Amino acid sequence: MADDEHHHGVSPLQELGIGMVSCFVLDYMHLVCLGNVRKLVGLWIKGPLQCRVSAATITVISSHLKTIREHLPRNFARKPRSLMEYSQWKATEFRQFLLYTGRVILKGHLPARLYKNFMLLSIAIRILLSPALCYKYCDYADKLLKCYVTNFAKIYGTEHLVYNTHSLIHLADDARKFGPLDNVSCFPFENYLGTLKQLVRRPQNPVQQVVRRLGEKPSCPQGKMKEMRNKPQPPSACGPTLSNFPPCVQYKRYIYKGNIISCSQGNNSFDVEGKVAIVKNIVEFASGEMYAVCQFYKRQGCFYDYPIDVTCMRIRKVTQLDDGLHGVLLTD
How many Cα neighbours within 13 Å face the side chain of 115? Predict the structure, then answer.
């Protein structure tokens, strides 16, 4: 309360004895996804001339976004849409664009200085979201975000350096205090709003309706939940197998702990002990053991090296799919 003009009185929340700044977190869903990423795309399309991207380039990028729809796994709730529809994008679409598709689609099409600035934000947020990277590289992510904000002002102009963009330099502080940003994001709450909305049938007494509907739901036995999680598709008999495999039942798809393992494009690519595998068949032996019949890529290389070599973040370019088949335990 150092600035008297900024305060109209004493907040009752002070009685809780919490930090009135440090304990009120920045939600990256609104700050980054719906804030900064949306603003970036808007500036590329209709921003100042010094940073605006040509209509032809926007068309090419949008075309590529539509092309990769069939290559994305079903873990993604939404498929990519054209950049021209960005004003209707949901937060999950901006998140997908920032962390996954944008890095690939924009490379070689977006001007180098714009792409490098985008990568600063992308890598920093990737670090702050990852439980494996957040604690170790939090200070580095902090530097990347400060560098992003500084370069943003140079590229797009200080008139676009709004409070949302400035707040990025404080995002790493929340990660230091509360861990990965998903621990304190609005995504799970926003996702559950749809479920709550379905429980309300009329405008009167909405809270009572929600409580009653939740109380009426039968609890699902643990065994049944496990059965739902690990469920194969009906058997097939058209996939390749290994010569040393005993007689087995074949499947096209298997759901294991919420992950879809499939022979179809988009859901057939996996990391197996540091190598990228393509699933060609799923087999089950009489003993109950299940294997994926896979092909591996022979070569792995650096996809991008700014601001760091992203290979250390398990982002890499793979080439030369091996003709040989290999059996991999489904649990791997």
Answer: 15
